[in-house]
Design goal:
heterodimer; A: mainly alpha; AhpD-like; 11 helices; B: mainly alpha; two-stranded antiparallel sheet
């Protein structure tokens, strides 16, 4: 981590929180969480740990973010990190990927009546050829985790292994999708608080 | 190539429950004795090396360390939202996403801290539409809106939480607790599965 990056907090940046703002005070009441969430951002998006290149991380992060919080400053931030060719591929992915969740089929028999079956979404063939099979498999896995996580099964995880990813890489990809699913919600919640200040803030 | 474990003889839960479920991985993690010093440190609490889930996550130590330190403060920091309400948010998110394992753990915690096990069971049995009283209805509705994709949380949920008596620090605690389980559910659902207590 470079020295100048330590004070940069992505959540503050995309929500628009300045030092001394009511939301700054609230975030600093949980200083460990504030710092560690930024540390996770760095550890997932600014490294090549387990030999996963940064550009692939940003594509998958942008895909998850665009499905979860489309049209937000966080979505724009992720897209801005893509090179122009990848930005085009992202649009192609989003144009065919279902975006309503959480759905899926329960593995527990007593919950079968609550299942909302989802047909497995596949990366379109032309995009697949450009991404390559390993990255296409990650994008499909990310879509399942974002939209219908209760469809997870051993065979679903097996597709990542069959695409050539190691156990360590599977863990990193899983964390990247799961962390982004957290970060998008925190940003949305804090943005809603900022846009709807309470009486205690107006006073 | 990494072997995928399917556990053909596993005793699996039938539905949501507050029972003390176990969790088995679909990929064999490193053995505890094979973890490096850095990996053990990344799990924050040495006891976590006994968990196959955390031993898997130790494959990316920087991330699991940040995850775990954030988790502990989001749920255990003094002041702000009551612990029972934070656990309720975690249980509601898990109920909505369909993570039976996470729901079991945090329903137990919510029942313990609130001393309202019957209400927690209503959430598990009936789902996120259960009638739980004004405060818990607001926490559950906020958790559900945060868990929907695309995320649906906005002014309506903030207003509902304020009307239930929450201040902005408490609402931020709801957001972080519910947000965190959108992280945790996806790991627990996709790297393994729950098993009944032996």
């Amino acid at each position: 981590m470079s020295p100048e990056s330590i004070d940069v907090d992505l959540i503050d940046q995309v929500v628009g929180i300045a030092p001394g703002d009511p939301l700054d005070t609230i975030r600093r009441a949980r200083p460990v969480a504030r710092d560690q969430v930024q540390a996770a951002e760095q550890a997932l998006f600014e490294t090549d740990t387990n030999d996963i290149p940064r550009d692939q991380r940003w594509l998958v992060g942008a895909f998850v973010t665009a499905l979860t919080v489309p049209g937000t400053p966080l979505d724009e931030h992720r897209r801005a990190g893509l090179d122009p060719d990848r930005a085009v591929l992202l649009e192609q992915l989003l144009s065919s990927a279902p975006d309503q969740g959480p759905r899926g089929s329960y593995r527990e028999p007593g919950l079968a009546t609550e299942s909302q079956p989802v047909e497995r979404w596949l990366v379109p063939d032309d995009v697949r050829a450009q991404l390559g099979e390993p990255l296409a498999a990650v994008v499909e896995h990310a879509h399942l985790l974002v939209i219908h996580p209760r469809d997870s099964r051993p065979a679903v995880l097996g597709r990542l292994v069959e695409a050539g990813w190691t156990r360590q890489q599977v863990v990193t990809w899983s964390q990247l999708v799961a962390f982004t699913s957290f970060q998008t919600r925190v940003v949305t919640g804090l943005t809603a608080l900022k846009q709807n200040p309470g009486t205690e803030q107006a006073a | 190539m990494t072997e995928i474990l399917t556990h053909p003889d596993l005793s699996r839960p039938e539905a949501f429950t507050r029972a003390e479920l176990g969790w088995v991985p679909w990929i064999e993690p490193s053995a505890a004795e094979d973890l490096s010093e850095r990996q053990v440190e990344s799990l924050v609490q040495p006891s976590r090396t006994a968990s196959p889930y955390f031993r898997l996550l130790a494959d990316d130590p920087d991330v699991v360390e940040a995850r775990t330190k954030a988790d502990l403060e989001i749920f255990q920091a003094k002041g702000g939202l009551e612990r029972a309400d934070r656990e309720l948010a975690a249980a509601a998110v898990s109920r909505h996403n369909g993570c039976v394992f996470c729901a079991s753990v945090h329903a137990r915690f919510a029942a313990h801290y609130s001393k309202q096990p019957d209400l927690v069971d209503q959430l598990l049995d009936e789902g996120v539409g259960a009638e739980l009283g004004q405060r818990w209805n607001a926490v559950v509705a906020a958790s559900v809106a945060l868990t929907d994709t695309p995320v649906a949380f906005g002014a309506d949920q903030v207003t509902q939480l304020r009307e239930a008596g929450l201040d902005d620090l408490e609402i931020s605690d709801v957001v972080h607790s519910a947000g965190f389980f959108n992280w945790a559910n996806r790991l627990m659902l996709s790297l393994g599965e729950p098993e009944n207590p032996s």
